[in-house]
Design goal:
InterPro entries: AmiSUreI_transpt, AmiSUreI_transpt_sf. Belongs to the AmiS/UreI family. This is Transporter. It is a multi-pass membrane protein. This protein is an all-alpha fold. The chain has one domain: AmiS/UreI transporter (Serine Threonine Protein Phosphatase 5, Tetratricopeptide repeat). Helix content is 81%, strand content 0%. The chain contains 7 helices and no strands. α2 runs antiparallel to α3 and α4 packs antiparallel against α5. The two termini are 20 Å apart.
Length: 207
């Protein structure tokens, strides 16, 4: 169930990335946010019902809700024409929460690659906070490209690895993931600064 949800998170991140980069109209992207947001609320609810007193399962479901609510917030807000400040500040809450879930994966679950992936999501949602909550429109292109990198590297790729039973939680893969993440995040900064593309005055929403 988790791998299926992760795959479609990759899809909505991809759509929102190309939206931020000006290739998809915001209201068109909002539909995908509603689809995936609904799924990311239904799936953890099922997990919670089945979890009983399983703390690990409850923690996992709680993490999924963070993103499900983000997508619903974006989808509904965009279609209703609501200012994006609220989802921006909610993204700050998600960013801090993701650091905690990263620590859980590193020190409790011992799933080291997902410890790195949670940190990647924390950084991405912090960018959403800056872009939408603080209206830092000059970060639009950078945020769009970082979103695209996350769509491919932190959701779609691990989803297919999980679906094909090729995923490993070993520490060496976490190191590879971490190095690739840092290189991409750092390299995208000067590249997006050089484009000089004008950012929209009112970004429509994040992942």
């Amino acid at each position: 169930m988790a791998s299926v949800g992760l795959l479609y998170v990759g899809a909505v991140l991809f759509v929102n990335a190309v939206m931020l980069l000006g290739r998809v109209e915001p209201r068109a992207a909002a539909i995908m946010n509603l689809f995936v947001g609904a799924m990311q609320v239904v799936f953890p609810t099922i997990l919670l019902v089945q979890a009983g007193t399983d703390t690990a399962a409850i923690s996992f479901a709680a993490g999924i809700y963070l993103f499900g609510f983000t997508y619903l917030y974006v989808g509904i807000g965009t279609l209703a024409g609501i200012d994006s400040t609220g989802v921006g500040w909610f993204s700050l809450f998600v960013s801090f929460s993701a650091i905690v879930f990263s620590a859980v994966n590193f020190f409790d679950v011992k799933d080291y690659p997902f410890g790195v992936i949670w940190l990647s999501w924390s950084f991405l949602w912090f960018l959403f906070f800056l872009l939408l909550g603080l209206k830092r429109a000059e970060l639009n292109d950078y945020t769009g490209w970082v979103t695209l990198a996350n769509a491919l590297g932190t959701t779609t790729l691990p989803a297919f690895l999980l679906l094909t039973d090729n995923y490993s939680s070993a520490g060496k893969y976490a190191v590879i993931w971490a190095v690739c993440t840092v290189v991409i995040v750092v390299a995208l900064w000067p590249l997006t600064r050089r484009t000089g593309a004008a950012a929209p005055a009112e970004p429509a929403g994040p992942a």
